[in-house]
Amino acid sequence: MKAIRGVLLTCDSAVKQILLTLNEKESFIIEDLDDYHVVIKADEEYRVRRELEAELEKNTYSLD
After folding, report:
1. 47-59 as b/e, with b when 16 or more CB fall inside 10 Å?
2. 38: Cβ–Cβ under 8 A, 6 or more apart, which residues?
3. What is the DSSP letter of 42?
4. What is the dihedral sign for C-alpha 11, 15, 19, 20?
5. Which pLDDT tens digits describe the chain residue by residue (64 residues)?
6. CA torsion sign, 34 to 53 to 26 to 40?
7. Is the dihedral of CA 55, 38, 47, 21 positive or negative?
8. In terms of Cα–Cα distance, which of 3, 6, 2 is closest to 29?
9. Which long-range contacts (CB under 8 A, 24 or more apart) does 29-33 make?
10. Are 22 and 55 in contact (CB under 8 A)?
11. Which of 22, 38, 53, 63 is deepest in the core (most CB within 10 A)?
12. What whole-number distance in Å separates Cα of residue 22 and Cα of residue 47?
């Protein structure tokens, strides 16, 4: 078995559901630990954070 370098992400359950949906397109989750913690591939961290931020922006309401 080969070791994979990972990063632990802590998030709420809503953000975790978005991460699971993004993971279906391109696999980056190494281990789904519990409702608030996910381990992702370290080399995918920047891309995942960027995609997550873009997804959260779509769901943000502004008065502008």
Report:
1. ebeebbeeeeeee
2. 8, 9, 11, 16, 19, 29, 31, 32
3. G
4. positive
5. 788 999 999 999 999 999 999 999 999 999 999 999 999 999 999 999 999 999 998 877 777 6
6. negative
7. negative
8. 6
9. 30/4, 30/6, 31/6
10. yes
11. 38
12. 11
Tokens 């769901």 belong to which residue? 59
Sign of CA dihedral 12, 18, 20, 22: negative
Q: How far apart are CA 16 and CA 24, in angstroms?
A: 13
CA distance 47 to 52: 8
Residue type, 34: D
Please give the structure tokens belonging to residue 4: 């994979």
State the pLDDT at residue 42: 96
For residues 45 and 22, give the distance between their C-alpha atoms in angstroms, rounded to a whole number.
Answer: 13
